[in-house]
Amino acid sequence: MARASTASHTNLLAYPNCYRSSFSCRGGLLTFFPTPTNPTSAIMSHRKFEAPRHGSLAFLPRKRAARHRGKVKSFPKDDPKKPVHLTAAMGYKAGMTTIVRDLDRPGAKAHKKEVVEAVTIIDTPPMIVVGLVGYIETPRGLRSLTTVWAEHLSDEVKRRFYKNWYKSKKKAFTKYAKKHSDNSGSSITRELERIKKYCTVVRQKKAHLMEIQLNGGSVADKVEFGTALFEKPVGIDSIFEQDEMIDVIAVTKGHGYSGVTARWGTKKLPRKTHKGLRKVACIGAWHPSHVQWTVARAGQMGYHHRTSVNHKVYRIGKGDADDNAATELDITKKTITPMGGFVRYGEINNDFVMVKGSVPGVKKRVMTLRKSMFIHTSRRALEKVELKWIDTSSEFGHGAFQTPAEKKAFQGTLKKDLVASA
């Protein structure tokens, strides 16, 4: 009877056909372990038919930038209570290096510990003020009322107004320069008074050539500030300061015509796919009978206009200082230029800005640096940066020597030195 009961109990055990049963008896308890024969988690040999969207549609159209220099499409909001100041500057990307500093971020795991970070060095020669532009508000936005130019303009400024400078007569601004001398410059004064009376936004024209908005103070204060800078150099330290958050506007590195795999990051098709596998398998339905704009297609990759925001300024260095790469803990007399120079750039002899992280563009490309559009309150933005060490070793050769003197002290007199002295 007990045996029949056991048999009936055993018959009640059921499992799906896709499992092999595995029984064990421990201490009189009958247990069952289902073992899958067709696991659903196994790797399939065919391509899946669903995938998330590849690539962002926010940056369409992905075409070549219209201009080589980054354009400031929005300036920080003007505050008349603040003193008059410039809101942007220009520089040239020189290269990248490495720094070591103590992190000052309470609550973080690396607080008061050394961190190694990548920084970008931007060469910022002084800008020369060459003009003043006044804008008036209209129902359709800002419209320029008048432009006042400086009396003496260099040839590098005049070149911007010629397609072929070599074959031209080079007479640009010759008639305009006479306005400064005729009647003691009364016509120039009249134009400046028009700007003070009618304009709401005042910007300066600068040689690369770009307009930079003046913020702070009244319109009359802006005009006086701008005209006082005519034909004078404006250093980068008068625009930005250390520990400030800035935006970098530039044109990215160009890669020419690229396929969908590199341009959009779509998945490669299986190996045996006919007529190539770095493609999109299906570019759309039969109807609507056209390729939609959201489908990944081959085309231009890179050389796009981009704005990279919130770069912290780690240092603003002087170009004429021979120790602009020294710190409180590393008192070695060295400049920011690494041994052998920056690859594909050379030496930095002007003032420079060191910002955290990477910025768009290639070496030698002009960058537009803009003051941040927002008021920052985060700990990361308000953190005080104290650099402990800046790497100036060769970016191309071997070794980690920081200066030529350090390399010579380690290697001693070489054969090539004896040959050169002889």
Number of strands: 19
Average pLDDT, all residues: 88
Question: What is the CATH architecture descriptor of the largest domain?
Answer: Beta Barrel
Instruction: State the distance separating the first and last CA atoms.
Output: 115 Å
The CATH homology group name of the largest domain: Translation factors
* CATH level 3 topology of the largest domain: Elongation Factor Tu (Ef-tu), domain 3
- Low-confidence segments, ≥5 residues, pLDDT <50? 1-35
Structural class: alpha+beta
Sketch the topology as an H/E string, one letter per element: HEEEEEEEEEHHHEEHEEEHEEEEHEHH
Radius of gyration: 33 Å
Percent of residues in helices: 10-25%
The number of distinct helices, counting runs of at least 4 residues, comes to 9
